Structure of DUF317 domain-containing protein:
Amino acid sequence: MSKRQQWTGWGQAQQAQQHYLVEPRYLAGGGDLRHVGEFLRASGWKDIARSSGTMLAFDSPDQMVRVAYQPPGGWQVHGAAHGHQPAWQVTLTPQTPVEIVAGLTDALTKPRSAHAPNVWAPLTEKSWSMQQDDYFVAQSPDRHAVVQYVQAGGDGSQNHWWVGARNEHGPVWNAQATASTPLHLVQSLTTALADPEPVMRPLGHVPLSNRIRVTSVSVMPHQLGAWQQARISAARAAAWSRNWVSSRARTGSKASGYARTR
């Protein structure tokens, strides 16, 4: 079957489409931006792409965080200063797999864990090697991905996290996070980075590299839609739960105030 014949299924609801499971995920290519954007939308984030002039842009409900994508620069995630938390920023180049970007951005929509974050734990659990020289560095078992904490300058103002992947052709993508980036977000990023599960890419969107493993699969459009909808539905359910709890807390606070007044 020719490439053209394989792709004629786009407009036919019941025709199977050729996709590929790609691993390791950090060499799978950028992927569909909607994987990130639609989850944020379903989580109650405000779509400001049109007003901001970017391809993709969302503000958090409290307007403290913005996630944006604009080629050729790629992803920009900004967090405003709040209380004891200084401003922070994460940048990810365009070919960063969306599943890894979502490791960070999904975490922005969820309550922070009570456990102390450990950026390195998800990596060592997946047998990444750890080294310490002038900076801390973890390297994937295949040596194609790296996480570093770079200590630059005596006052620490230039310290930052650096994450990147390369194949036989050279660097593929990288991400940088300021040292002020909340550690639980960096841990969510490294968790997604080290996840051994393959990611799916459509025909024509698989990188040309002998460093990846590819499995061909035929997928019905309704199956793709169901998988995407499950992710969106989970985000909506979590947002509804948070709003309900918040509403109950406000109602309880008002009731307590009324009782004290009486």
Notes: Confidence is low (pLDDT under 50) at residues 1-12, 258-262. Residues 17-241 form one domain.
